[in-house]
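Q: Fold this one first, please.
A: Sequence and structure below.
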Amino acid sequence: MNRTLPIGALVYVLLALLLSLYFAFAAVQGPSGILRRVQLEAETAQLVAERDALAAEVARMKNLTRRLSDEYLDLELLDERARDVLGLVRGDELIVR
């Protein structure tokens, strides 16, 4: 009752096993594998957060630009910027250092 597999069948089984291992490895580690997908999802989340932060910054800058434009001049903002950038003060103000 001692049956052995013919050498051709053994080679066939070994080849099938090696191919299965290769495809399993490629599915996990390959350029389109599971680990690469997780890495891309994390990178996508980071880039979306960066994009949202930049969009908020652009909106803030558009608001400031509009408030300093000729169509809509915010005098308080203009006064604040002149004081900050140019160091201007009014004649009736005292400077305490």
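Q: Good. Now the second chain.
A: Here it is, same layout.
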Amino acid sequence: MAPSTTAAAAVTLVAILSTLVGSTHSTTASKVPVNKCCEKFEVYYDEKCTVAETVNVTTGWTPEFTGRNGERNVSVAHRFVIGLPDCGTRQKFNIYQYHDSYDKLILFPDGQLRHRSLNHKEPARSSIGEDYPESEDPHEPHRQYDYVQGLYCVDRSIESGREGGERMEGLVAKVCSPQEDIHWTDSDVMLRKIINPICHGLAIVILLVVAIIYFVLPTLRDLVGNMVTTITMCLIVSQAADLVRIFTEFSNHVSFLIADLFFYVSLLGAFFWLNAMGYYIWKMFRTRNVFLRVSDGRKYCWYSCYAWGCTGTMAGIALFAHFFLNLPGHSQQQQHLSSGGGGDSVFENQDNISWLGIAVFFTPIAFIIIVNMFFFITTLRFINRMHTYGRIHHKLRCSFVMFTLIFATMSIAWLFLILSWLHFDGLLYMHIVANALQAPCLLYICVLRQKHVTFLVKSCFRDQTPQTAEWGDEMTYMNGGDY
């Protein structure tokens, strides 16, 4: 009987343990998971997880649940899930809720987190029930996003008031950027995400062909030809940077800033080089002695100092304005919002070039367009007053026509770029079309329209020795009206 009694006792003990473990597991599973950024004994102090006792804080963060209808302090059994959200390829950013801030965070009983962003023109309301009504009215002055478990974490945030600031306590949430469903069959998505990138790629190839032609052929490698090569290379960089800007959701905010910087700097450099070309042609037509004792290489160095020096100076001013100068109403937003992970610097809290930085980049372009119009009008009047001119003036006249067409093409594309910022789909589509036509137009202006250039290109494929005389092709076609 002893062995049977022992076996029965063992079975009973196993059954009791199974019951206890099962009840414990069911109790744990029934608790609502709440994602906490730091450990239970830590708080988010000065953008870093810090032990609460070391910063004179007795307790950590206790979640406060709010019902869907605005009920406060709803009693919910919960458990903490420690760790940052796994955003994958999506951007991760911080949301801060302080007293009277425009960002409100609410935790629902099912574990979802809602972020309500109020309009800065509306006063922040003190009642959570007023801040989070279940309203889908599109005219409400706010935006809201809901985040499920795994796409957010919340914790208690404390700012020590460094650099003379005020000590603030509130909440911080690290969330993954909301990702809207993309329907690739939609015409708008196809135009923005498929056709537009393809056009950018074709534009890069076409501009590269123009640059190679003017760089390889010795006859075209004069001062104007080198300027055309530099302008096309600047446009290639701007097209590549704009191609990166199209797919902003596949990278982080630092890539946004770098892509914007390359785009605006290269575009500004292209216009400065276009201005240098216009000045050179204008000056040569007004100079009595066109046989100046200065080589094209030295002139190119002088114009390089002007173009790249002005471009670098304006880029430095734009970056300074972007990082250190705030527009009205921007300081309030930057006080409560921060991007990136813990310990990010002020440079990493920037997503794109600000409007003030864009204004610094684009204001010189507007003045360059005005100055180039002056060069065009005065040079055209001078050409119309000329009755006879030699082969050098004939070549300058050819360069003037090419400058005029390049100037018109780039100015129209720049104008449509500005109009695309008005948030009208029609203007954006017009900008996409204008940008797609810019590179083919430059190919026609610089290569196909000039028969002496096409003749030199064909002679390379015919295995013939090209003419090495400096003005040979100009003399051949001077009387044919091929320019």
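Q: Anything worth noting on the second one?
A: The radius of gyration is 33 Å.
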